[in-house]
Amino acid sequence: MPRARSARWNAALIAAALGLSSALSLVPSGTVKAETLASALARAYTASPIINGERASVRATDENVPRALSGYRPRISASADIGRSWSERDVRGVRTESALTPRGIGLQIDQSIYNGGRTAASVRQAESQVFAARQNLEASVQDVLFQAVQAYMNVLRDTAILNLQTNNLDVLGEQLRQTQDRFDVGEVTRTDVAQSEARVAAARSQAILGEANLRSSIAVYRRIVGVDPRSLQPGSVPQNLIPGTIDAAVQTALAENPNIIAARHALDAAQAQVRLVEGELLPSLGVQGSVSHRYSSSIAGDSATSAQIVARLDVPLYQGGEVSARVRQAKEVAQQRRFDVELVREQVRAAVIAAFGQYEASTAQIVAAQAQVSAAETALTGVREEARVGQRTTLDVLNAQQELLNARVNLITAQRDRVVAGYSVVQAMGRLTPPRLALNVEIYDPSVHFEQVDGLWYGTRTPSGQ
């Protein structure tokens, strides 16, 4: 290869290196305050629209309880009316005319005394729905935190891999220069130069792909955490939250996983629905009281006041089979929810076993990858020395260089996988929560809003002022 072409190759390598450095500037260091995994999780917990949306959903579900409790309370309504009437009478030639303005006001109160237990069943159902919504919120929180862990570790992994690929591109570029110099003096053949050029092109392609992967990971990080990554510190496995055996992890998950608890509350709500519909087949008893005052009903200026109280008993006899069908339907839905509980339990069990297995496998992979890196470094050094004395070819050196790069990438990937797998075990157990992670955030308590609205008899403004 002529010297001019070699110079063009070196200029292209420098331009490529400068272009790749722009990707690293997306994750700057220096004076920027370092971001830790714990601080990133705290940001995600505070700012995630998924979590905030679930919190609003829980608050909306809280309102089902005062709606159900309204069945115990009276219904009061007031009425008023006014009109104009004209009349004309002719009795034995005597004509009389009158014009009246009848008007009146009234008040009516309806109080249910017994409705077949429907109100009690409705309250029980509403409370179960609230408890299920809280567990769904807990599951969403843990899912978002786990996504934040993945995003954080992916940025670290892709940054490290891009650094390796950039360095590898520099090393191969230098090796190409040396091979070109040796070719110019006749020490190697044109094939050696072509092999080096091919590896440089492949390395440049991998570096560009690595930059694209890093940009994608940064975009995911921003979507989940809410800010761009800045000087990320290494992540670590929450060893204190992972039990020593898989059996202990499974037992913890079956007792604490929010998805299982939510499924149980959904079963309670379905069973309450059965009792709610069955109440429609039972008698209902209520009392109605009313009072009214009217003016100018018969003659101009007259007034009358009336009041009454009525007890009403309704006994359903036959509704065409519609209510009975809904009772049977509710029972089948309850049976379905019972099976759902078992399904979720098995899904959680499988998730724990899979996550724990991945955690143990990634730990072993790190040990193997470290040994692979050490051996590849030794092999590369030996191949380079042998190449200097003519016992190895340029292709042997290039292969050894590639094997070392692959080993280092495998080590970085295994380290990332171990951290993610550790958090996956914690999430499957149901313990990936801000208090257990000791995050520096204010913990959202859904019971506060529930207590604020539970006893409200009136008012349309939410506790937050909306």
The total strand number stands at 6
Poorly predicted runs are: 1-31
CATH topology: Outer membrane efflux proteins (OEP)
Major beta sheet, strand line-up: 1-4-5-6
Report the biggest beta sheet as strand number plus sense, adding barrel if it closes. 4 strands, antiparallel
The ordered string of helix (H) and strand (E) elements is HHHHEEEEHHHHEEHHHH
Describe the protein.
The two termini are 75 Å apart. Helix 3 packs antiparallel against helix 5 (118-184). A hairpin with a 7-residue loop joins strand 5 and strand 6 (303-314). The protein has helices spanning 3-24, 37-47, 49-62, 64-69, 118-184, 190-225, 246-256, 258-278, 322-388, 394-429, 434-437, 446-454; strands at residues 75-82, 85-91, 94-100, 103-114, 284-295, 303-314. It has a four-stranded antiparallel beta sheet with strand order 1-4-5-6, with no helix packed on it. The chain has a two-stranded antiparallel ribbon with strand order 2-3. By secondary structure, the chain is an alpha+beta fold.
Index terms:
two-stranded antiparallel ribbon, 466 residues, alpha+beta, elongated, Outer membrane efflux proteins (OEP), single chain, 65% helix, disordered N terminus, four-stranded antiparallel β-sheet
Draw up the topology in text.
Layout: H1 3-24, H2 37-47, H3 49-62, H4 64-69, E1 75-82, E2 85-91, E3 94-100, E4 103-114, H5 118-184, H6 190-225, H7 246-256, H8 258-278, E5 284-295, E6 303-314, H9 322-388, H10 394-429, H11 434-437, H12 446-454
Antiparallel strand pairs: 1-4, 2-3, 4-5, 5-6
Give a brief outline of the structure:
This protein is an alpha+beta fold and 466 residues long.
